[in-house]
Design brief:
This protein starts with 14 loop residues before the first helix and ends in a 15-residue tail after the last strand. The chain is an alpha/beta fold and 738 residues long.
């Protein structure tokens, strides 16, 4: 899933074209983008202006409110697209299809080792013309992963069907019952195909739960395991030698030039044993490498077994690509850090930047974070999604991008991070199912544990009964969970070295942190990331964290948290220089006391759809350099006091569709260098003072706004008007509930 986000405009005359998508737009915005559209003509008109171009790109087929495009975006459980280059699966695809379509076959398990192409085969099947002719839009594709949440999976099915409210279930049984009723009422007698991708051993009971007594209903399961209790299993074969050579050449010799001895190529391909993932990863790692590296690879494999004899052997083979990072310690550590996040979940690049700035002294702007991720992506060790392919914003290289990782590569990262004694590890990755803590975590013989990076992932059965663990030297703490009510670990109080805290709820609804605010001992905390959390209040001692430099709140409920004014503004976040608030749909206004945080350099308010006004005191933030108000669609105006922001270098007003004028003294922003103004559809003129913006270098906008700026080009020597037609990638939407 690679990424870019929202922007576009068009005329009200297109409203009729979009009205028939209104119902699907409602769920699209309400859940995925946090825009709660009302059903009146004015709001639909705004939706048209902002999103008509995007919807033209996104929707290539539509029916039942579900869509698929060439980038593979498919909503919550629609069918993903297929990779651009696939070899060796045609014959097996026909065999699998024949098995699935047999009468009396309700379940087919597609089984093969990790990295063998199971998911690719499932995507090919779902995109097959014959299959689409039979099932139409009644194909539901779900990624299961290791710790499946049945209720969340059923909610995603509801989410993907037109005009369906997403219920909150009382139990798993209730979820299945309502799913059956949904299919009977909405689909009727039409055939249904449910794909459960990446089923793990121990979760196969989920298959029986999803097996519904509905005529024409079938389930396709992909798994690296074999489930003997299910009669119909198709075992996906490795690629034959010819297809393996074709795939390997595609990645190792992309420019068509082979300067390596043929026998070395043959030996490397044989060593990959027909594994598509191994061929891809190893091929990319050897691309344009000298022959000595090929010889070294062959020698290292010469004593080994077949690549898929065991998972450990497979990992050791794939480790070749990691060994290629020797001598590039920061890059290798960046790869290993990706294992800190849950399987099959998107990882915001901005969150990685927060970690890596503190761990590896990377730049605040995120340029090197993105460079390292590009390098890992080029080596096929991560999938990097750039949301805005057209983005020319060097102010924040990371802002909306994210990464994802094949589960086998994540296992490699976890495996390598788990080498050596627990006490001597750099990072510790803890995955807790239910309340079963690993024995070594609570074993006094291992206490204290002196790791710098700690990740704890819990499932929806966890009851927050934390053990008394001693991990005092943690610098970065990552908490991943799914429950509705979550208790922060008590042992955080002893983490005096903690500088980065990332708290992410991967559940369907926002979670309550039962013991939030944070422990008062976290005096060294510099960066706080909260995602999908309900924040009722911010206690005074939190506001006085003297070293806090950045706070990010993503898809959080925070409206009431800022209502209480601190007693002493001078002691409030004395070193805070960045506030980042995105997709917080209950934020109506920014309180005036925030304008007393005089050290602030960056305020980023993105996609806060209910934000109506900014405080008149905004001009007091005399050190502010960045003000981003992207897609704050209800924001009416900028306060006149903005003219006092003499240090402001970057202003983003993209998709502020209700803003019909700019401050008369906008020209007083003597340091302004970049303005983004795509989608400012209500704006019909610029204040004459803009001719005084002598430092303005770039206006990034659409054709309508470019026309307004053309008049002032002769007055502004440095000005470049950049007209963009935004290419927004929404692949990430089906990975995270809002």
């Amino acid at each position: 899933m690679e990424i870019r986000w929202w922007n576009a405009i068009k005329k009200y005359s297109h409203a009729k074209k979009l009205e028939k998508y209104e119902a699907s737009l409602l769920w699209f915005f309400q859940i995925n983008v946090q825009v709660e559209l009302s059903r009146d003509g004015k709001t639909v008109a705004v939706g048209v202006k902002v999103l008509e171009e995007k919807m033209d790109k996104i929707i290539s087929t539509q029916d039942n409110g579900r869509s698929v495009n060439s980038n593979g975006f498919s909503g919550w459980c629609g069918v993903p697209g297929v990779p651009d280059f696939v070899v060796g699966l045609d014959a097996q695809l026909q065999e699998l299809k024949g098995m699935l379509l047999k009468d009396g076959v309700p379940i087919v398990v597609l089984s093969a080792p990790g990295g063998c192409g199971k998911t690719t085969m499932a995507k090919l099947l779902c995109n097959d013309d014959e299959i689409k002719g039979i099932y139409g839009n009644n194909i539901f594709f779900q990624t299961v992963s290791r710790a499946p949440n049945l209720q969340l999976m059923v909610q995603k099915v509801f989410q993907s069907i037109k005009n369906q409210q997403v219920p909150i279930f009382q139990s798993d049984e209730d979820a299945i019952y309502q799913l059956e009723q949904l299919f009977l009422q909405q689909v009727g007698q039409a055939p249904i195909l449910l794909v459960l991708d990446d089923m793990w051993s121990g979760s196969e009971s989920l298959i029986d739960q999803f097996l519904l007594p509905i005529h024409g209903y079938k389930i396709l399961v992909t798994s690296r395991f074999v489930f003997p209790q299910f009669e119909w299993t198709y075992k996906l074969n490795m690629l034959n030698h010819q297809d393996a050579m074709t795939l390997f050449h595609h990645h190792a010799f992309k420019d068509g030039i082979c300067t390596v001895q043929k026998h070395l190529v043959e030996e490397v391909v044989r060593g990959c044993s027909g594994s598509p993932l191994a061929l891809t990863v190893v091929g990319r790692s050897l691309y344009r490498q000298p022959q000595v590296n090929w010889i070294s690879t062959v020698q290292n494999w010469s004593q080994g077994q077949s690549i898929y004899d065991t998972n450990m052997v497979l990992l050791s083979r794939l480790k070749t690509s990691l060994d290629a990072l020797d001598g590039m310690e920061v890059l290798k550590n960046c790869f290993l850090d990706l294992g800190l996040f849950p399987e099959d979940q998107r990882i915001p690049v901005a969150a990685l930047k927060d970690m890596w700035v503190e761990l590896y002294n990377l730049d605040e702007g995120g340029m090197y974070t993105l460079i390292y991720l590009h390098e890992l992506s080029n080596r096929n060790l991560v999938n990097l999604t750039l949301v805005r392919k057209d983005d020319q914003d060097a102010n924040d290289y990371c802002k909306e991008h994210f990464v994802m990782q094949h589960d086998l590569l994540r296992e490699l990262a976890v495996h390598q991070s788990s080498q050596g004694s627990i006490e001597g590890r750099e990072r510790l990755i803890v995955e807790i199912n239910g309340n079963a803590f690993p024995e070594w975590l609570t074993d006094r013989n291992h206490q204290p544990i002196n790791v710098r990076i700690l990740s704890i992932t819990t499932d929806n059965a966890f009851c927050s009964n934390w053990s008394n663990v001693q991990i005092p030297d943690v610098k970065v703490l990552i908490l991943n969970f799914q429950v509705k009510i979550y208790t922060l670990p008590e042992f955080m109080e002893r983490m005096s070295c903690l500088t980065v805290l990332l708290v992410t709820n991967y559940g369907f609804t926002r979670a309550i942190l039962e013991n939030f605010p944070l422990p008062s001992q976290l005096n060294n905390l510099k960066r706080l990331w909260l995602e999908n959390i309900s924040i009722p209040s911010i206690a005074p001692f939190i506001l006085q964290l003297k070293n806090l430099q950045k706070i990010s709140m993503i898809t959080c409920e925070i409206g009431k948290a800022f209502e209480v004014c601190p007693i002493s503004i001078s002691n409030t976040w004395p070193n805070l220089n960045e506030i980042n608030i995105e997709y917080c749909d209950d934020l109506v206004e920014i309180p005036a006391w925030v304008c007393g945080l005089v050290h602030l350099k960056k305020i980023k308010l993105g996609y806060c759809q209910e934000l109506v006004t900014l405080p008149p005191e905004l001009g007091n933030l005399t050190n502010l350099e960045v003000l981003r108000l992207q897609s704050c669609t209800q924001l009416l105006e900028l306060p006149e006091s903005i003219s006092g922001l003499r240090e402001l270098k970057y202003l983003d007003l993209s998709d502020c569709v209700e803003m019909d004028h700019l401050p008369e003294r906008l020209g007083d922003l003597c340091g302004l260098q970049i303005i983004r103004m795509m989608g400012c559809t209500a704006l019909s003129e610029l204040p004459p003072s803009v001719m005084d913006l002598v430092q303005l270098e770039r206006v990034i906008c659409d054709n309508e706004i470019a026309y307004l700026w053309k008049f002032y080009e002769d007055y502004l020597d440095k000005l470049e008007i950049v007209v963009v037609k935004e290419d927004v990638n929404l692949n990430w939407l089906h990975k995270r509930p809002a």
